[in-house]
Amino acid sequence: MTDHRPCVQLNTGVQMPLLGLGTYRLQGREEIYQTVDAALTAGYRAFDTAAVYRNEADIGQALCTLLPKHGLSRADVFITTKLSPKDQGWKAKDGCLRSLEQLGLDYIDLFLIHWPGTQGLDVKDKQNPENRAQSWATLEEFHAEGKFRAIGVSNYTVKHMEELLKSCTVIPAVLQVEFHPRLVQRELRELCEKSGVCFQAYSSLGTGILLSDPLVLEIAERYGKTPAQVLLRWAVQQNIPVLPKSCQPNRLQENGCLFDFELSDGDMAMLSALDCREKFCWDPSLVL
Fold first, then answer.
1. What are phi and psi of 181, to 5 degrees?
2. What is the pLDDT, as a whole number, of residue 281?
3. 180 marked as part of a ligand binding site
4. Average pLDDT of the chain?
5. What does the DSSP 8-state code read for residue 111?
6. How many CB atoms lie within 10 A of CB 187?
7. Which of 120, 125, 222, 251 is the most exposed place for a label (fewest CB within 10 A)?
8. How far apart, in Å, are the Cα atoms of 4 and each of 82, 176, 260?
9. What's the pLDDT score for residue 17?
């Protein structure tokens, strides 16, 4: 990783950019090519996908074509993908190999278990914890072979994390969860900090709802920034990596301009005080 943009160092020693492009709902070879091109132009060097997004192959092809165009090599970008819930458990190895093949890569920078449950199982099924453990053992094997430079989990609760930390050989490098001023996840963040796990945010804009929050609008106006920039800056100023999503070049550029201003301690505190534990995405707390 040779980019000058701010990074966090994972517990494996790997550098992960604080800013990455989320690719959920990004579909179609042409749209993906244009979006990745615009993102690289805007300085993005991290790309977050998943097997369930069904866009790994198109993202891999776009990067293969575009990296030389931008004077970049594979080592200049950080690629994250995730294990599908349908591959949880004994199918995990096939899922891992499929992601490597779809992306067309010899290695993946960060590979996550996407969800603590298994597709097709009831959330209270006792097989869920067993499948998680089996999936993690598979990720540890790929990590040992150098095919995954770092491994982690997504959408895990405190309970899921404590279970994993008690049994794992390799400590997860990253926990990726929903995080924004209305869901500040204090307990999870404290657990991550204590355990040496990087806490990473998705849905930083609250699926767009927080862009019209009166406090966010007021702060944005005072700083001459967009509401999205304020929300993303609130996270990165706490050293929490973010993954904003957009396919519009001007929005990609705007969302990437997070490192030329700083929110005051008072504004940071007021944003954090919006916390009401409101989730805009799915709720993993029901999964056994």
1. -60, -20
2. 93
3. no
4. 96
5. E
6. 11
7. 120
8. 26, 23, 14
9. 98
Contact in structure between 118 and 131 (CB atoms under 8 Å): yes
Residue 60 lies in a domain: yes
Structure tokens at 210: 């927080």
Residue pLDDT, tens place only, 262-281: 999 999 999 999 999 999 99
Strand spans (E) along the chain: 7-9, 15-17, 21-22, 46-48, 78-83, 108-113, 148-154, 174-178, 198-202
Location of structure tokens 């190895």: 93
Whether residue 279 lies inside any domain: the answer is no
Phi-psi region of 248 (alpha: psi -120 to 50; beta: other; left: phi over 0): beta
pLDDT digits (tens, 9 = 90+) for 97-136: 999 999 999 999 999 999 999 999 999 999 999 999 999 9
Return d(Cα 214, Cα 218) in angstroms, integer. Answer: 6
Low-confidence stretches of the chain (pLDDT < 70) are: 1-4
Tokens of 257: 């301009």
Answer yes or no: is 228 within a domain. Answer: no
**What residue type is assigned to position 81 of the chain?**
T
**CA–CA separation, 220 vs 222, rounded Å?**
5
Structural domain for 120, as ranges: 7-208+240-246
The answer to whether residues 107 and 149 touch, using CB atoms and an 8 Å cutoff, is yes
Q: What is the CATH number of the domain that holds 166?
A: 3.20.20.100
Both structure tokens of 50 = 């998943």
Q: Is 53 a catalytic residue?
A: yes
β partners of residue 7: 17
- Which residue has 């004994």 as its token pair? 90
Only one residue has tokens 């991550």, namely 192
Q: Is 44 a domain residue?
A: yes
Q: Quote the distance between the C-alpha of residue 169 and its chain's center.
A: 23
